[in-house]
Amino acid sequence: MRAMLLVNPKATTTNARTRDVLIRALSAAVDLSVEETGYRGHAATLAATAHAKGYDAVAVLGGDGTINEAVNGLLNPVNGRTGDTAGGAEDRPGLIVIPGGSANVFARALGLPNDPVQATGAVLEALREGRRRVVGLGQALWDDQSRYFTFCSGMGFDAEVIRAVEGLRGAGFKATPARYVATMLRHYFMTDHHDPPITLRGPGIPAAEGIFLAIICNTTPWTYIGDRPVSPTPWASFETGLDMLALRRLGPHVMAQVAPQIVGLPQTLPKGRHLVQLHDEAEFTLTASRPVAFQLDGDYLGEREQVTYRSTPAALQVLL
């Protein structure tokens, strides 16, 4: 098997010594070439190159952002048409995930260990046994652009928090769980709680107006606080369509009611009269009366006034 390993040298939880150990272990199992990412979007370019050159697999040592870029490189547009992909999952390289970021939501949702060394051991076992899992992806489309996501997207409050944390990371602070929580609380008290801008529409879906926050999930959990999963859409999975939890109120009473229902791995949907929920949907659109913050897989992508979400079933092979 011929594989390309994409290494993010700035990955949060690995160092040069760990990377060398992992590279040697993978090199003993596959014909491996190693590429370091050097700038935003580089992983997508490298993954697309691996696809074009006929590699059997693309391995990623990095966080959720680097994995998202690589996935989008593997499902690159055909003939310049936004949102088109070449063939099915079997027609593109398989993905090997080695967690190296601060949250590693996608890797953990797949059932991989959060430790990169242990995850590499699980990957090597999968290679020996020829194990692969085919998973669906979400797709977001806005203006003339399209991007796939592996586990979540968001419009509104959660994307505002991610934007703030990315600003802190740019200033040299680490993205720790405590920093996310502190930023979320600070941002909550700065948010306008009186003018919800988002409207939901979709084929066969009752329209819903007055939404402050929309969390769209391709699997569960949505994120982690340390070792504790946060699951606003507990029925979401890689084998179904997209799920969503949206809030029409952001007051303390609503937040206090919702928060305990989504921490952990609940089996039932959260309850509350200010919630809007979707399960296993193929497509829907969120439109905002003003530009609102937008994120995919924990990567802030600016402000948007309209995003259409689509489910892409059986889009990717993962070796695990």
- Cα Rg: 19 Å
Range of helix content? 25-40%
The tally of helices reads 8
Beta-strand portion reads 35-45%
C-alpha end-to-end distance: 15 Å
Q: Which structural category fits the helices and strands?
A: alpha+beta
- Helices and strands, in N-to-C order? EHEHEHEHHEEEHHEEEEEEHEEE
Overall morphology: globular
Detail the poorly predicted runs.
78-84
Largest sheet descriptor: 10 strands, antiparallel
The overall strand count is 16
Average pLDDT over all residues: 92
Describe the structure.
The protein is of the alpha+beta class. It has helices at 16-27, 42-52, 64-74, 105-109, 116-129, 157-170, 177-190, 252-262; strands at residues 2-7, 31-36, 57-62, 94-99, 133-142, 145-149, 152-156, 198-202, 205-211, 213-217, 223-225, 228-230, 242-247, 275-281, 283-296, 299-318. The strands form three sheets. Strands 5, 6, 7, 8, 9, 10, 13, 14, 15 and 16 form a ten-stranded antiparallel β-sheet that branches. The radius of gyration is 19 Å and the shape is globular. The model is unreliable at 78-84 (pLDDT under 50).
Keywords for this entry:
alpha+beta, 10-stranded antiparallel β-sheet, 8 helices, globular, 4-stranded parallel β-sheet
